[in-house]
Every structure is written in structure tokens, then in C-alpha cells.
What we know:
Helix 2 (about 15-45) packs antiparallel against helix 10. The mean pLDDT is about 85. The chain has one domain (about 5-450). By secondary structure, it is mostly helical. The chain has 17 helices and no strands.
Amino acid sequence: xxxxxxxxxxxxxVPVSRAVATLAIPTIISQVVTxxxxxxxxxxxxxxxxxxxxxxxxxxxxxxxxxxxxxxxxGLGGGSLISRMLGKQNHKDIRNVSAFSVWGGAAAxxxxxxxxxxxxxxxxxxxxxxxDTYGYAESYLIWVVVLGGVPTMLSLSLxxxxxxxxxxxxxxxxxxxxxxxxxxLDPVLIFGFDLEVAGAAIATAFxxxxxxxxxxxxxxRLGERTSVSLxxxxxxxxxxxxxxxxxLASALATALGNxxxxxxxxxxxxxxxxxxxAYGIVKRIDQFPLNVSMGLCxxxxxxxxxxxxxxxxxxxxxxxxxxxxxxLIMSACFIACFAVFAPQILHLFIPEAETSTLGAAFxxxxxxxxxxxxxxxxxxxxxxxxxxxxxxxILTFSRxxxxxxxxxxxMDLTIGLYGMxxxxxxxxxxxxxxxxxxxxxxxxxxxxxxxxE
Length: 453
């Protein structure tokens, strides 16, 4: 029987590799399942054989993914602060942090969903919708963002808050429950009820709502074993600054990443709907290894935050280095798989020959950036876990804002369609020494301050 560790043992004394595995493996599994259900929409819509429908899902997806930015702003920001509060043995204020993360996030997402509905026509035109894709994209956007926005954001935030206390397994179960339900509902609604793109969107929205219900039940069952509170009476603005100082960095990373996707989809639409469909599928597949790394990030963040707050910098560094090495090994395996099986993978998603052939070429290029992207991600998330939101935000803005978007436009103008696909690798090569430099600088400052004590 697998040994269950107490919160204190897990954060302080369990060997680093086992502690990371205990928190990260359930999170990675949940991220994989989440990625599968994200892929499910594209996969099942692709089986219809209509590239315009696939292009429509691809166009709307970056805007839908901004809900992840809101989930990270409130959930990851709040979760990071909770882990650091645990490291300082401050359990009292956790209920205020968690209540703000849940209710503040829900209110912000409701506003986002309302504005999306009001401005959906100019928004879809901006995203690159053509007369052939507009109707499909509008239908998808209304279901997943306008109607399903709040449940999507809440399911992400509640998972982050659970993980912050070391409850990685129930957090992962909640995400997996929604993911599996979506995979089951997709073919039923798309083909059984002949709802096509709308069916995929309804499945996503309903599955995220089911995840929220699942998480609420988990919190009720945990009772006194959790300091997290979902009750609105504990809502306060007292910890907004501490939550947003970390959450903004993660939200900025997601928002700018989606802005980059919007730019590349918009630029690709200048070459026709087929490249948009091909890139949309490749981006979903390429996200798979990055989501595995994201699961690793979310797993080790509570360990880093706790040990940073308690002053155990040696253990904190061991956790970080072990996680980075693990991410590199996993990324290398994904590159080998994509390089060898790219045509088969693309044909699986869309049997239409022109789209799958173009997508296979895109995938073999795009996957080369995965190891570097993973390490850059992990360094940024390590800084967030330490509460160094400003440093993390600088890295994120430099990577996505200063480099990626301008380079996408430049590569499109000078090289063309394939130039845009190579852009991510160029950006990650430039950013890797910058990320390591920022991390080393932060560690050196910690050493200096500790030596002065």
C-alpha cells in the first residue's frame, strides 16, 4: 500500500524526487487528460472532414484560452500565496485568500464573458474569421466563453487552490473527471445529435461545469482538513496585491501566448483557410508536451513556495533542478515521436490530404522548440512560486511581447508561412540564457540577504 505523507513531511523531509513525483504525477496526468479533451474538440470536428469547421475552432480557441489566464491570475496567484503562508505556519489568512480567488475570479470572468458576447462580431473579424468560418466560430465562442466562461475559470482556480495545500490527487481527479466527460460527450453531441461545432462547444462548457461541482463536493468532504474557504463571507480585498503580484505574471504568460497564437492565425489566414486549419491542429498537438511540463510546474510550485518561505533554500534549489532535468528528458521523447510519426498523427486528426500534409511539415518544425520552451516555463514558474512575480513578468513580457509577436510579423514578411512556424524556436534560443541569468541573479540576492542575517 502506498504510504501517505503528512503535509509537513511532504514539504520538508520526503526525498526531493519522491516529493515532486507525489505532487506532480497526479497533476501531469490531469494535464494530459485535459489536453486530450482539448484535442477531442479538434479531433472529432476534424472527422467531419470539413476544414472550415476545424479552422473555426482554431480561430476561437486562443480567445477561449484567455480563461486560463484568468484562472491563473486568481487561482495560481492565490495558490502560490497559500503555499507560502503554510511555509510560515499562517493558516488563519488562507480562507480570505481562497475566497477572493474564487469569487473575485468569478466576477472578473463574468465581465469577460459579457464583453465577448457584446463585441463578438468585431472580435471574430479580428481573429481572422472568413465568410466560410464565421458562423461556426461564433457558435463555438458563445458556448465555450459566453456561457461556459465562469465554470471553466472556476474549475482551474479550484484545482490550483487544492494543489497549494498538497492535495494534488483530488485536484487532478477533478480535472480528469471533466476531461473524460468531455471526450464522452463530444461524439454524442457532434454526431449523435448532429450539432457539429456547437456540439463540441456544448460538451466543453458542460464538462467544466461538472468539474466545478466535483471540486465543491471534494472541499465539503475535506472539511477541517483544508484551510481553504469557498464561503463569500470570507471575501476581502486585503491580499489582492500579494495574489496579483504572482498571478499577473502567469496570466500575462497565458494572455501573451494566446495573443501570439491570434497573430499567427491572423497571418496564416492571409494564405487561406487550409493553413489556419493545419496550424490549429499542430498547435493543439504541440501543446501536449507543454501541458505535461505545465503539470510538472503546478506540481512543484507548492514545494518551492513552502521551502522558500521557510528559508530552506537548499531543498528549494534541489526541487527546481530535478524538475528541469525531468522536463528535458520528457521533451526529448516527444520530439522523437513527433518527428517520426507526424504524417500519421495529422492524418488521424483530419483525413483531408492537403491539410494533413501541410500540418505534418508544421509539426516537425514546431516540436523542436519544446525542450527550450519547457525549461523557460519552469524557470518562470519557479520565480512565481517564490513570490518573485516581477521577475517572472519581465521574462514573460520579454519572451512573448518583445520577441515573439514582432518576430512573427518579421518572419512572415521576410520568409513567409514557414518562417512563422520557425519563430518559436528562435525566441526560445534567445530567452534561455536570459531566464537562467534572472534565476541566478535572484538566488544570489537570496544568499546575500541570508549572509547578512
